[in-house]
Amino acid sequence: VESERKNLTDLKKQVVALDGSIAEKQRLFGEKEELFKVLQKKQNEKKEQLENLKRQYQAVSVGVAADGEGTAKTLADQLMDAKSELTKQQVEVRSITIRIEHAQRELDELSKSTKNTDQQYKQLMKEEKELKQKLEVSEEERNNLNFEEEQFNAVVEKNKKLMVMIKTLQESIMGLENRLRGLDFHYEKPTSNWDNSKVHGRVAGLVTIKETKYSLALEIAGAGRLSNVVVQDEDTSKTILKNGKLRNRETFIPLNQIQTRPVSDAQLKAAYNEVGKTNVASAMSLLSYDKADVRAIEYVFGSTLVCHTSDHAKAVTFHENIKAKCVTLEGDLFDPMGTLTGGAAPNNRNNYLILRYELSQKRKELENLTIEHSETQKLFNELNQKKNKKIDLDNKINLDKQREQLLEKRISQTDYHQHINKVEDLKKFLQTEKENLLHHQNLATTASSKVNTIEHQIQHFDKDIQLQKTKQNITHTKQLYKDLTKEATQAQHTNLKLTTQIEQYH
User: Fold this and answer.
1) How far is CA 492 from CA 306, 459, 478, 479, in A?
2) Low pLDDT (below 50) residues in the chain
3) Beta 304-307 vs 325-328: how paired, if at all?
4) Sign of CA dihedral 477, 482, 485, 486
5) 330 and 312 in contact (C-beta within 8 Å)?
6) 8 Å CB contact between 233 and 254
């Protein structure tokens, strides 16, 4: 095992050494590759130079000289071409100079005439400046509105839906109120100074059930007393009976006279212990009512318990420590005197307790929707105001932009504005022509220098000396080309060798 570990360590060292060797050879390969490209470029340049020198040698051999482009021409022909080019550039320089002088004179005259701005131009420029400032203010005001069409449309749509929902709820409430008209107590004022607040109303109209599942049980518990009329005192009931011109026979519950026997705390506690707190409750605890009517509610519902099932009701009703009437959720009534009333539920289309519960819920829903609609309407009004403001600003901005275009057109048609444009055009023209003049002056200088050079060559031309110089240049260039070729070949060979070594490592 130790031997294998040593071999593994040696192999790892060899791998590291090989990686280093490969990296070094790749670096050398890159350097040689770059060197080869440089040498190849120099080699091509020397080859082209050598070809040019050979053409010059041939030209001198037949008694002519090569021009700068390597074309064989006599010195006289070259001199004629050079003088022709010089004349051409001198003519162009004179022509440009004349154009510059003419343009400069025109510019000077226009500059003098535009010093005094005419009154119309000043007024139009002032109007344009004021209009631009006005446009900036309007556009900034429009941007600051932060009005978004999508948000506005969403609010409009929400408002429509809320109005439909409110209308539907109002119709539903109206229908429930019509069905509850049976709870209305109709009578005529028995005296001229009669106080209507002494008549509280029918029992069924004074209570609201807390949960719909108790509606049948509470209807059975209230029985005929649900239609009884609650009044402030005995005198109120007597006065109504005597002078109220009642249409039907009525039973009154005077709050000051009635005797109540509500289920005691001890009885309720015993019931909890017997069947569990979740299976029994006092009828009154399942109702909502005004404190002013509490004695009447105790009179009607106070002595009754509500149980979930018949077994619970039976256990509670006949318990020796309870002995209270019990009604089940199914409407079965257990009396401690031993009677049991049950069977089919009363076929009463207008279960006033359930109707009042539904009416209460729908009124709450309507109240919430009305608040939501009020808030949405407020937001709509704000957004609609912004929208109208934006429309006004859009129209104002569009109108001002049209006025701006008309002003710009009128300004452009004034003599002063046209003069200014002409001045600017002349300045640009002069700048271009001056640059053009400098260019042709340089070309003329070059052509003149070439004429002098060729004239000097004609005066001092010696064929043998020219041949000797050209021959020497050819020999020197050939040697340079040969050396570059050899160096480039060596670099290419080294690269091939490095490529082979790198491939062997892989």
Assistant:
1) 109, 50, 21, 20
2) 66-68, 70
3) parallel
4) negative
5) no
6) yes
